[in-house]
Write the structure tokens for this entry.
Amino acid sequence: MVTDHPSLSASLPFGLHPAGAALKWLAVCAAFATASAAAQPVEVPSGESIELQEVLIDEVGVQTWLRFRFVAPYIARDTGAVDFAQVGADMTYLCDALAIPYMAQHALDGEVIVISLADRVTEFGVSDPDATQFFEAFRLSNDTCIWEGL
């Protein structure tokens, strides 16, 4: 059962549903598969636009990890227009500008925030050798994302 929650913008409703004992899913209800999907693009410092695919709440040992998963076609291996330094700046921006406000709005708390970018929609935990993906882990300190370097 999906429970609607307010979103960061009126056009991005979020839902909460369980997906196993250790992993809870907080997923964007906007469907990427339909042309009428109203996913709100986010412009990042590299000048590219990306879309939030989903937010996952994951219990890893005794820690709570919040995983913010984005679709970023501009990182594709064959057609990518930016280097990793620019992508790293985009990921830090997404943590500070999107993840922190999202956590406050939805009363979420976590020890680790993971920002992931993929050049296409991917299923969490399923290998996709054709997809280009980048991941960065952060921790919060005084409402600022600090790179963990995991």
Residues 84-105 form the longest helix (22 residues). The chain has one domain: 13-31+39-147. Confidence is low (pLDDT under 50) at residues 1-38. Helices lie at 84-105.
